[in-house]
Description:
flat, Receptor-associated Protein, disordered N terminus
Amino acid sequence: MLFGVNFIVIAIGAAFALSIGTLVYSLVPVKSDIAKRLERVEALSWDGSGSRTEVFAKIFNREQRGRLRQKLDEAGWYTVTPAKMGLRQLSFGLLACTVCVFYVTANGFGAKWYFGVAVITALAAYLPQSRLAGAVKKRKIAIQKALPDFLDMLASTVSAGLAFNAALAYAQEVATGPLGEEIKASLSEVRLGRSRADSLRSMANRVRQEQLSSVVTAVVQAERLGSNMALVLRELSEEVRNRRMTRAEELANLMPTKMVLPMALFMLPALFVMIFGGVVAEFMSKPPGH
């Protein structure tokens, strides 16, 4: 019996240590593609060797890794690989499972509690994915908010006579946050020798934000056709603002529908207590037979 208890304690301790080590390793950032390209051009010591998590990455097929890589790009997590994202899920699930099993075993709970352990483990393993989805949504909203001011500044600098690349470099200072980071990355790719159209399309493919993709498509076509770039940028800025206003109006129109459930759950019970509370209290205070 003592041997069995010691084995359980050792197993729980080993699983806890493994989950902590896996979590710490998964949080170590890797170099982004742009940083690797810059190091290649500058002849630094990057040797192009594969990641240590290649074996783990082979567990998932290429399509799954591609979808996860796209989500990581949309969230701006360029220093996180799909394999390390999988390691985070594994470590969170293993850590939650270890803690729950230790708690259940130490308190002598029955086997029925292990169903709760499985549920908590699944929720903990899903936590990194939930955080990733939240980061994607937050980043796209931030880009949508910064886009009109960025286009206004870009149109003004182009009208002042600056070349488009110089105007992008100047306007990125106005576009703080994710949009500024993406513009800076695109300019870095242009300096590495990539065409401006390709770098802008690459940015749109990474971000996958509808309005930014429309802007990139319009800018590339205007440049190809030789249109007035300043006029195109001003029209795009006005269109983006109009879309944002339309979206705000749509959300405002949905508010009455979204308020039905909170009103039914919170306001109506309180209203019934106020109306009938006094009557019920008076009825309950009367002695039997009266």
